[in-house]
Design goal:
GO cellular component, one term: plasma membrane
CATH topology of the largest domain: Glycerol-3-phosphate (1)-acyltransferase
Biased composition (Basic and acidic residues): 219-246
Number of strands: 7
CATH superfamily of the largest domain: Glycerol-3-phosphate (1)-acyltransferase
Helix content: 40-55%
Largest sheet: 7 strands, mixed
CATH class of the largest domain: Alpha Beta
GO biological process, one term: phosphatidic acid biosynthetic process
Low-confidence stretches: 264-287
CATH architecture of the largest domain: 3-Layer(aba) Sandwich
Number of domains: 2
Biased composition (Gly residues): 278-287
Region (Disordered): 219-287
Strand order of the largest sheet: 1-7-6-2-5-3-4
Length: 287
C-alpha cells in the first residue's frame, strides 16, 4: 500500500513552523523505527500543551510519514489557518452535530488509503496536575478495531515546559528539550472480532492509554499514578460537592429562621439578629 505524498501544503507549513521550533526547542526524539514505512496506521499521542501539536508534527514530518490530525471544525474556518488545515488534509471534528461521526469515517478512509492519522485520545490538554495522561476517549480504539491497523503509542514531554497548560505566555529561557518516544504497536488483537460495544471500546482505550503512559514514564523516569485522572468523574464529584454546599446553606438559613421564631423575634421577644446569610442578602444564598 503506498504512502501519502507530503505535498505542497505540508512542505509550506514546515517552512513556516520548523525554524521557530528548532530555535525554541532542543530535540530528544526516539523510536522513529516504530513508525511504519508503508501502509495505513494511527498514532496515539498525549497532549499537555498548545504547542505540542506543532512539536509532535515536526517529529512525525521528519519520519517521512506526515500525519492527519483530527481537529476542531472551527479551525477550518479561520482564514489562512483554515487554508493550511484543508491543504494538509487534516480532518475536521464537528462536535455535537449530525456530522459528529464524519470525522471517524474520514479517519477510517484515510487509514485504508495507506495514510497516518494522529489521535489525541484525551481529547484536550491533560488536566492532571502533574501532566500525566488522563483517561481517553474511544475514537482511536474505534478506528483501530475497524481497520485492524497498527496503533503506535507516542509520548512527548517538554513542549509543556515551553508553554505550560493554559498559560498565556511562553517560558523561553533556558531553552527547553522536546522529548518524544514512540513505542512498538499496541496489541489489540484480543478485541478483534468482538462487537464494538461501549465496554469493548472502553477496555481497548484503556490498553491504548496505558501504552502511552508507559512511554511517558520512561521519558520522565518516574511512575505515573495507579489511577489516571478522569475528567468525567471529576465533573460528577464537583456537581455533588456544589449541590451539597447549596443544601448546607439552605439548611443553615432554615435553622436560623426557626430559631428566630415565626414573628422574627428571639425567645426573649427581641427582634432576631440577622444571620450571616440574611445579612449578606442574596450573597448568603451562594450568589
Amino acid at each position: 500500500m503506498p504512502r501519502r505524498r507530503i505535498g505542497f501544503w505540508y512542505r509550506f507549513a514546515a517552512v513556516i513552523a520548523k525554524p521557530p521550533l528548532v530555535v525554541l526547542l532542543k530535540r530528544d526524539w526516539r523510536g522513529m523505527e516504530h513508525i511504519p514505512a508503508e501502509g495505513g496506521f494511527i498514532t496515539v499521542v498525549n497532549h499537555n500543551s498548545h504547542v505540542d501539536p506543532f512539536a509532535y508534527g515536526h517529529f512525525q514530518y521528519n519520519t517521512g510519514r506526515v500525519p492527519r490530525f483530527l481537529a476542531k471544525s472551527g479551525l477550518f474556518k479561520k482564514g489562512f489557518i483554515g487554508s493550511v488545515m484543508r491543504g494538509t488534509g487534516q480532518i475536521p471534528v464537528y462536535r455535537e452535530s449530525t456530522d459528529a461521526l464524519s470525522a471517524f469515517r474520514a479517519a477510517i478512509d484515510a487509514v485504508e488509503r495507506g495514510e497516518c492519522v494522529a489521535f489525541y485520545p484525551e481529547g484536550t490538554i491533560t488536566r492532571d496536575r502533574n501532566g500525566w495522561p488522563m483517561t481517553g476517549k474511544t475514537g482511536a480504539a474505534r478506528v483501530a478495531l475497524k481497520t485492524k491497523c497498527p496503533v503506535i503509542p507516542v509520548a512527548q514531554w517538554g513542549a509543556n515546559e515551553l508553554l505550560p497548560p493554559y498559560a498565556k505566555k511562553p517560558d523561553l529561557l533556558p531553552r527547553k528539550t522536546h522529548h518524544v518516544l514512540a513505542g512498538p504497536p499496541v496489541d489489540l488483537s484480543r478485541f478483534y472480532g468482538k462487537e464494538m460495544t461501549a465496554e469493548v471500546l472502553k477496555e481497548a482505550t484503556e490498553v491504548i492509554m496505558a501504552a502511552i503512559t508507559r512511554q511517558l514514564e520512561e521519558i520522565r523516569g518516574e511512575r505515573a499514578p495507579e489511577t489516571p485522572y478522569d475528567p468525567k468523574r471529576e465533573r460528577i464529584e464537583q456537581r455533588r460537592r456544589t449541590e451539597a454546599q447549596k443544601q448546607g446553606r439552605v439548611a443553615a438559613v432554615e435553622v436560623s429562621r426557626d430559631a428566630a421564631g415565626p414573628s422574627g423575634r428571639d425567645a426573649a421577644g427581641e427582634p432576631g439578629r440577622e444571620t450571616a446569610g440574611q445579612a449578606g442578602g442574596e450573597e448568603g444564598l451562594g450568589k
